[in-house]
Write a structure and sequence with these properties.
Bound molecules: zinc ion
Number of domains: 3
Radius of gyration: 26 Å
CATH architecture of the largest domain: Alpha-Beta Barrel
Number of strands: 17
Helix content: 25-40%
CATH superfamily of the largest domain: Glycosidases
Largest sheet: 8 strands, parallel, barrel
Structural class: alpha/beta
CATH topology of the largest domain: TIM Barrel
CATH class of the largest domain: Alpha Beta
């Protein structure tokens, strides 16, 4: 056989693995399958079958076979995608996580349309650069994560995990409850357990957090923390007369409080014992902290005194678990908290801390960037992807801001080992994916991830146009600076829409983009006196349903925006009713 015949034969045999649409796929799981691997298989099936009418079968003849394999040697949590012969693609995970992310990569590079499933042509290996690629789902204010049906949240987290996320952090805030046995507290524990089980079912890490001095609503008043900064040694008042306490926090310098805090934590450890907590967060402020003289300055004194025994107790309850020590709002009210913790950790490197968490709502804290991380410990970030610049949060639809995330990333990435973006709901899905990809591949630009996201969620043919729309959204991010480009975004989306599959057109991700464009256009029209009440109303109703914010607190409920019309334009004419 001549070389060119061999070539042609191979090329034909591999056609289905190289870009021909198929309507049926056989999924071959590895022989060493367990519950996690079977779950990864289910995620693959759901992704394919919900995005096109191709079917996935476990056996029988099919024009395409996708074979899942676990074989170490690629690098922790990494994967390789390779051709496995005629009509066969092999996804090789270094470990079970690598398999999940490899399945994600294959799906993200593929096409789903009326012809069925066209497998992505990407071949090669990929290994995450940063080890901690988490996300924090806040469960409060009756937000999405607190109230949405658990099946929805499960699908949502699975979707996210395909982009490389490997840990979910949840929080048990005590301020609303009268003790651990309060039925409301138990309901919260039940919800958090269910959320963390989603993560464990995928073989990923469960994380729980607490503040260093939390207290229940009914904790004894005489044990409570001081929150005033006025005339308090170790504090300044540049950022107000009080730290952001809720009133229930306790002072660990008062007799009996350290024992109480230990009891609170032991109750939590017990509640999550069978699930397993891979990371334990301890947090200083917002809420949290005590400004009394014995605890001052909190971040370098009372906080550390309380955090150390809690961290050690956690490690005892969960051997192998990692402790993340927060520095949020250090020096915001305190004087010398960064310097203080750095001096202490320089004197003796703490054996009870695995990671330092540093971030800030406004500018990133300069201290660890300029002077190094206390104790030389690895550092994680906690980027806000939910609240920046738009109020109510999620109140206008999708809020992507790749430019801002990129700028902050460029400033900090060399110091980071990963992190946990702060999420209040699903409206910032694009931001979550951007951050997940930055942790995986720190040098890949955020805007390229937007394109990858658009190609997967909406289709490869419209990815560039959707990316342009996202750039317009960011330009119009501030609600009082929306320009005429808002109309361009709507025009682009109108042109894209007929090219989408019915599944995409109905998907909440697409609707969040459309709603944002519609609201921005109307807000711009408002500046011209041409707002349309019915557009605002329809957007608000649909957004409320998607975000499940019917009962959410006001900061999470879609905004009521009155349409502004110029005198005489489109106003109903005053009727003379004859009186
Ligand atoms: Zn105190």
């Amino acid at each position: 056989m001549h070389w060119w015949i061999v070539f042609v034969t191979l090329a034909c045999a591999a056609a289905n693995a190289r870009g021909e649409a198929v309507k049926s796929i056989r999924l071959a799981l590895p022989p060493e399958r367990d519950a996690v691997i079977e779950n990864i298989g289910r995620v693959f099936v759901r992704q394919i079958e919900s995005r096109c009418d191709a079917k996935v079968t476990p056996d029988g003849e099919a024009p395409l076979v996708v074979e899942l394999v676990v074989a170490p040697g690629i690098g922790a949590e990494g994967f390789r995608i390779e051709d496995g012969g005629a009509g066969r693609i092999r996804v090789v995970g270094n470990d079970r996580r690598g398999l999940l992310y490899g399945v994600g990569k294959l799906l993200h590079a593929s096409r789903f349309d009326a012809d069925g499933f066209t497998p992505g042509a990407w071949r090669g290996a990929s290994v995450p650069k940063m080890p901690v690629r988490g996300v924090y789902f806040a469960t409060h204010f009756q937000n999405y994560y607190q109230v949405a049906p658990i099946e929805d949240v499960t699908r949502y987290f699975e979707d996210l995990s395909l982009w490389g996320t490997n840990s979910l952090l949840v929080w048990y805030g005590m301020e609303e409850f009268n003790g651990f046995d309060d039925p409301k507290a138990q309901a919260m524990i039940t919800r958090l357990r269910v959320l963390l089980k989603i993560v464990k079912d995928l073989g990923l890490d469960a994380s729980l957090g607490c503040i260093g001095n939390d207290g229940y609503k009914n904790s004894p008043a005489e044990l409570r923390a001081d929150s005033s900064t006025v005339d308090h040694a170790g504090y300044h008042t540049n950022n107000g007369p009080r730290i952001y306490n809720l009133g229930n926090e306790l002072c660990p310098s008062k007799p009996g409080v350290p024992e109480l805090e230990m009891q609170f934590c032991q109750e939590k450890f017990g509640a999550f014992k069978d699930i397993g907590l891979d990371y334990w967060f301890i947090w200083p402020y917002d809420n949290g902290g005590c400004t009394c003289p014995k605890c001052a300055p909190w971040g370098a004194n009372g906080y550390l005194r309380m955090a150390e025994p809690l961290a050690r107790a956690y490690r005892q309850a969960f051997p192998g678990g990692k402790v993340i020590l927060g520095t949020w709002y250090f020096d915001r009210w305190g004087v010398g908290e960064w310097d203080g913790i750095a001096a202490k950790f320089a004197e003796k490197k703490p054996d009870w801390v695995d990671y330092i968490m540093a971030d800030n709502f406004e500018e990133y804290p300069r201290y660890p960037l300029d002077k190094g991380v206390p104790g030389g410990l690895p550092m994680l970030n906690f980027p806000d992807i939910s609240m920046w610049g738009q109020d109510p949060w999620g109140g206008y639809g999708a809020n992507p801001h790749p430019g801002r995330l990129q700028a902050r990333w460029d400033e900090t990435k060399h110091k980071l080992s990963g992190g946990f973006p702060y999420s209040e709901g699903i409206y910032e899905d694009i931001n979550k994916v951007i951050v997940a990809r930055l942790y995986w591949d720190p040098d890949r630009p955020a805007i390229e991830t937007v394109r990858d996201y658009a190609a997967f969620e909406f289709g490869p043919d419209v990815a560039d146009d959707v990316t342009t729309v996202v750039e317009i959204f960011e330009k119009n991010h501030w609600r009082n600076q929306i320009g005429p480009s808002a109309a361009t975004a709507v025009e682009l989306l109108d042109r894209i829409e007929p090219k989408l599959t019915p599944q995409v057109r109905q998907s909440w991700r697409w609707r969040l983009v459309r709603i944002r464009a519609a609201i921005d256009q109307e807000m711009y029209r408002n500046t011209l006196g041409q707002g349309r009440e019915e557009v605002f109303r329809a957007a608000r109703e649909e957004l409320t349903a998607i975000l499940r914010s019917q009962d959410a607190w006001p900061m999470l409920r879609p905004a009521v925006i009155p349409a502004v019309k110029r005198e005489g334009e489109g106003q109903p004419k005053a009727e003379n009713d004859g009186r």
